[in-house]
Every structure is written in C-alpha cells, then in structure tokens.
Amino acid sequence: MTSPSSTLTSPRPEADRRRWYALAIVMTAAFMDLVDVTIVNIAIPSIQQDAGATFSQIQWITAGYALAFAAGLITGGRLGDIHGRKRLFLVGIGGFTLASALCGFAVNPDMLVASRILQGAMAALMVPQVLSIVHATFPAHERGKVFGLFGAIVGLGAVSGPLLGALLTEWNLFGLEWRPIFLINLPVGIAGLVLGRKFITESKAPHALKLDLVGVALVVLGLLMLLYPLIRGRELGWPVWGYVSMGGALVVFGALVAYEKRKSARDGSPLIELSLFKVKSFAAGIAVQTVFGIGLGIFFLVWTLYMQTGLGWSPLRAGLTGVPFSIAVSLAAGLSVQKLVPRFGRKVLQAGALTMTAGVLLYIWESERYGMSIAPWQMALPLIVMGVGMGLIVAPLTDAVLSGVPREHSGSASGLINTVQQMGNALGLALVSVVFFGTMSDHLSPREVGPAFVDAFQQALVWVAVVMTAIFLLMFALPKRPAQHVEGAATTDTLGTLGTTGTTGTADAAPAGEQEPELVG
After folding, report:
1. What is the DSSP string of 104-151?
2. Which among 2, 34, 6 has a CA at the least distance from the CA of 156?
3. Of the candidates 120, 155, 115, which has an alpha carbon nearest to the alpha carbon of residue 31?
4. Dihedral, CA atoms, 255, 256, 257, 258, nearest 10 degrees?
C-alpha cells in the first residue's frame, strides 16, 4: 500500500488530474445541499397553497430536514471513517437524489415531510465526506486554495438558491408548481454518483473508532421529545403529554451525558467527547452556535411567510428582496476572516452580534412604519445591516471556538459545532409555533390575514433581537484572539456553510485522534 504522505505530496500526473475532478464532484454535491435548503424556504408558501399543508406540516418540511441532518452529521462522519469516505459519499448522494425524487413526486404533505426527513438523513451521510475527501486527496499546502474555492461556492449558493427557487416556482414548469425545486437535483445527483465512482479515491481512518449507536439513539430520541410537542403543541391545544414529553427530553439528555461518560471510560469511542466542555472557549462557543441557530431558524421561516403570505408578494419578488442580504453576508464574511479578526479578534464577532441586532430593530421599525405598503427597496437597508452582522459572525466563529481545543480532539469538536448549530436551527423552526403563529388568531378573515402576519413578523423579530443580545453576552467567554498558531491548539479544516437559511453543512475531516487518512486503492 502506498504511504499517505507520498501519495498526498507527490501525486502522479494522472492522479493529479483525477483529484481535481474529484474536487469538482464533491463541491457540486456541497452546492446541491446548500441550494436545496435555501431553495425550499422561498417555495414554502407555494407548497402550502398547492399541497394544502398545515402550518405544522410546513414547519416539519424545514425542521424535519434540519433535525435529521443534525442528528446524523457526527454519525455520517464516523461511518465514513470506518467504512470509507468514497463509499459513504456515494451512498449519501444516491440517497439524497432518491429522496429529492420522492419530494418532487409527493402526493400529499405527509409524504413530503417524510421525504424531507429522509433527504436530511442522506445529506448527513454525504456532506461530512466532502471535506474528508479533500483532506485525504490534497496535501496541506494546497488546501488553502481548495477552501478558497469552497468559499466561492458558499457565496454563490447563498445568492443563487433563493433566486433559483423563485424562478422555478414562478415558471411552473410543465404545470408542476413547486415540484421542480426538488426534481432539479435528479440530473445533478445522478451525474455526481456516476462520476464519483470513477474519480474519487477511497480513504479510511487508520484507527477509526466504533460507532456509538446508543449515543445516536439517545440524541435522536431527546430531540424528537423536545421538538415534536413544540411544533404540534399549538395546533393540538398544548396537551399535557406535550409538556411531559419536553420534560422527559431533559431526562434523556441527562442519560446521554451519563452514558457518554461511561463509554468514554470503557472504550474511548463516545459519540460526544465530553471532555471538550472543560475548555471554556469551546463550551461558550457551543452555546453561541446553538443560540445563533435558534435565532436564524426563527427568522428565515417567518421572513418568507411575511413576504409571500402576509404581503402577498410573488416568490420571485421575495427572492430578489433577499439578494442584498446574501451579498452582504458573503462580503462581510470574507472581510472579517482576512482583515478584521487578525487585528481585532473577538471584538469582530461581538460587533457582528450588535450589528445584526441593530438590523433586526431597524426592520421592526420599518415594518411598523410602512405596514402592508412596504416595498423591497425599503427592506434593503435593514437586510444589508443584518447581512453584515451575520457575515462578521459566521466565518470566524468556528476558529474562535476551536482555538483552545487540543489537536487530538479537533475532529470531534468540529463535528459537534456543526451539529449543535443544526440542532439550534431545528429548535428555532419549532419555536415558530410559539413566537409567530402563537400571536395570530385561528380564525382570520381574508382581509385580516395580511395585517396579522405583519404583526406576527414584528413579534418574532423581537425574539430574534433578544437572541442576538444573548449571543453578544455569551461571546465574552470566547478567547480574545483565536490561537491559530499556538502549539497544541486545534488546526482543523472546516467549512461553515453560510446562506439564507443559516445552516452549516460540514463535519471535520477527521475524528478525534486521527492523523493522516489511509488511502485505499
């Protein structure tokens, strides 16, 4: 077998070409995942109208995906380490493509919800392998260029997702209404599957840890017990069993912590490396990521409903309205990492939280002032301010959180960071029932719907502003400057996927303790 170091640093010309083909394939898959999430947000009102989905089903279309994605991220990365990154990538992209077809041909809202959950689970198998394959294929001195390309893809996806969703919904291709937003994944996924088999080189971790199935089960059970009552509670009249379930979720999470402690002592292969929480910056960063995900989960769903259902705008008009926000996020993210954080450190992230709070408050003021007559150009200023704030946070946050983590735990820490933000996002989507729909009457006349949605949007934004203020305070526990060049600090290859849904999409290239990957074949 060829040694990893020689394979990675001195590739043959044929291998050199193949790895760039492999890069294009996995980047396309990452782009497809990002666009698929953002594309759905803009089509939600059309799905609700055409498929007759209830508000709780609408929440599950988005929250179900986020929940399945969150619950499977660490598991997907670990399975790739054990069974091969190429193999899991192909299983993931094949399953993602199949789930997209089921979403596109769903005959009722329940089938669409189930298919979205399957799609999220398949994305959790596919996405963690992307950077793992890059890590195994490219030498360290080339990865900066590679991650620069990923940044461009992220920015492109942030802008193109909502626009593509709006166009496909507006065009109503072949009378399929919203369905092409899912069916467009079929040719891309099939091409990725065929080309991936040919060009991606298999790799595994040389000493992969075992999969913690009990840990996975407890995480999924606890999240379901917490989120299901939040999503269905208002519709069912907040039954007693819902409160019992949410209380029971805390018991399940407590059992998870106890089990993970025992498993770590027994065989050293827990799903969650609890020792990481002894690092102050990491524990604070996990709290920031979770709360940030909650705020974004609330905002992006209610924003879409506000524009299309409340104001009666077309999907295309709503999609174009979001372009200034996406551009501001991309530009501010690049500026924060390259120029600001090296000079000002943690203050950049805190400035981002305050800036985003200011944008939210400005949005509330403009929505109140202009009411139903508000125009897209009047939304541009608060959206740009919010986008700048978000960009200052999302790009440097991972480095700040990982700066105090020992190198041998960097993979576990990175996967956990991405997972908790997805969990926060799912929790935020679940809380929409409380902070948005909970402010509206169940019996509204057609004339009352618009004003009710505008008022509910403003109430939801107040919650978002509170969340951003909490994030600002939590950031005081982060290190003043990320210790990127300190010996023993984490030096991970991570990518925070920033877009109009606020989702992140990768786990780190290697689990705790892994050094170089083993190349197979």
Report:
1. HT-SSHHHHHHHHHHHHHHHHHHHHHHHHHHHHHS-HHHHHHHHHHHH
2. 34
3. 155
4. 50
Tokens linked to 30: 């990452």
The model's pLDDT over 133-184, given as tens digits with 9 standing for 90+, comes to 877 777 767 766 676 666 667 666 666 777 888 888 888 888 888 899 999 9
DSSP 173: G
CB 74 within 8 A of CB 507: yes
In terms of Cα–Cα distance, which of 392, 389, 386 is closest to 345?
Answer: 392
Q: Would you state the structure tokens that stand for residue 475, as one six-digit string? A: 């950031």
**CB within 8 Å of 310: residues ≥ 6 apart:** 449, 450, 452, 453, 454, 456, 457
**With a threshold of 0.85, does the pTM exceed it?**
no
Q: How far, in whole angstroms, is CA 489 from its chain's centroid?
A: 25
Question: Both ends of the chain: CA-CA distance in Å?
Answer: 8
- Cβ atoms of 207 and 515 within 8 Å: the answer is no
Per the rule left: phi > 0, alpha: psi between -120 and 50, beta: everything else, 497 is beta
Q: Which run of H or of E encompasses 28?
A: helix 13-51
Side-chain-side CA neighbours of 331 within 13 Å: the count stands at 11
Give the H/E segment covering residue 469: helix 446-474
Residue 85 neighbours by CB under 8 Å, 6+ apart: 129, 132, 133, 136, 202, 203, 204, 517
The tokens for 229 are 């009552």
**DSSP 3-state of 302:** helix
Listed in sequence order, the residues at least 6 apart from 197 whose beta carbon sits closer than 8 Å to its beta carbon are: 90
Task: Name the residue among 80, 191, 209 with its Cα closest to residue 134.
Answer: 80
Query: Could you report the per-residue pLDDT of 221-259, keeping only the tens digit for each?
Result: 988 898 888 888 877 888 999 999 999 999 999 999 999
For residue 145, give both structure tokens.
Answer: 């260029």
Cβ 46 vs Cβ 157: under 8 Å? no
Q: Which CATH code for domain 4-212+269-515?
A: 1.20.1250.20
